[in-house]
Amino acid sequence: MIPYHHMMAHFPIALLSLAFFVILLRSLTSNALVRRVDSTVLIYVLAAGVAGGLGALATGLMIWPTEAAVAGPMARNKILMATWTIVIWSVVLVLRWRMGENVWNGTGRYLMLVLGTTGIILASITGTLGGHLLGSPSALSAVLNQLGWNVYQTYFVPNWVLLLMFAVGLAGVVAGLGSGRKTAV
Ligand code: HEM
Questions:
Q1: 3-state secondary structure (DSSP) of residue 158
Q2: pLDDT score for 147
Q3: Residue 12 contacts residue 48 (beta carbons within 8 Å)
Q4: Would you tell me the crossing angle of helices 73-99 and 43-63 to the nearest 10 degrees?
């Protein structure tokens, strides 16, 4: 079988790592060269990274029958982390696209840095879980274990955390719509 997933997985890993590097530099400095790199390439690298992630997600889901993919904690964790990776980088893409270079003004640069850092950690965990599924674990899972998550068990959060995440998300949407309306007036 042609290893489409192995080939495809390189794109999000490489492109999102590059996007994170540009976000890190741009959130720490307004140097002319960094601003030019941000304004000329970041949006394209983000779009290609998210598209590559969707391709990796689709080819990853084709490797095993769905029943098998959702039967074990490792593959369940992989699907969860892969989906979160794509969602968070899609938010970064939409923020940079809709707000343009204004996204770096004020607290925006710290929001982009937090989202970018969370996104690259999720992408790294997704790749690491792929190595586990291939039978070659990496040291990152030992770090996750130290932090309290054994990757051989399905990632789990209590219901109150899910409710909190939902409430924070909703508050973010309301705040966003509110500030959008204010700027429109
Ligand atoms: C953003 C999405 C994804 C990325 C970046 C990604 C990345 C990776 C990486 C880096 C590997 C190791 C490849 C190697 O060492 O050659 C891998 C393997 C693997 N991934 Fe993914 N993956 C993604 C989504 C998924 C999804 C959604 C599934 C579904 C269960 C999946 C299933 C697998 C499997 C089964 C392997 C082992 C390879 C095999 O058995 O042939 N991947 N993935």
A1: coil
A2: 86
A3: no
A4: 160
60 lines ligand 1 (CB under 6 A): yes
> Would you say residue 148 has pLDDT above 70?
yes
Predicted pLDDT at 185: 59
The token duo for 115 is 């989202």
User: Is residue 184 very low, low, confident or very high in pLDDT (cuts 50, 70, 90)?
Assistant: low
Q: Hey, is 147 helix, strand or coil?
A: coil
Q: 82 in ligand 1 pocket by Cβ < 6 Å?
A: yes
Which residue minimizes the CA distance to atom 20 of ligand 1? 130
Mutate to test the pocket of ligand 1, among 4, 5, 155 (most ligand atoms within 8 A of CB): 5
List the chain domain ranges: 4-179
Q: In which band, very low, low, confident or very high, does the pLDDT at 168 lie, cut at 50, 70 and 90?
A: confident
| Cα 157 to averaged position of ligand 1 atoms, centre (Å) | 23
3-state secondary structure at position 29: coil
**Cα dist from 7 to 46, 107, 119, whole Å:** 19, 37, 21
Ligand 1 pocket, residue 126 CB under 6 Å? yes
H-only helix segments in 29-158:
32-37, 43-63, 66-71, 73-99, 108-134, 139-146
pLDDT tens digits for 99-124?
999 999 988 999 999 999 999 999 99
| pLDDT of 173 | 83
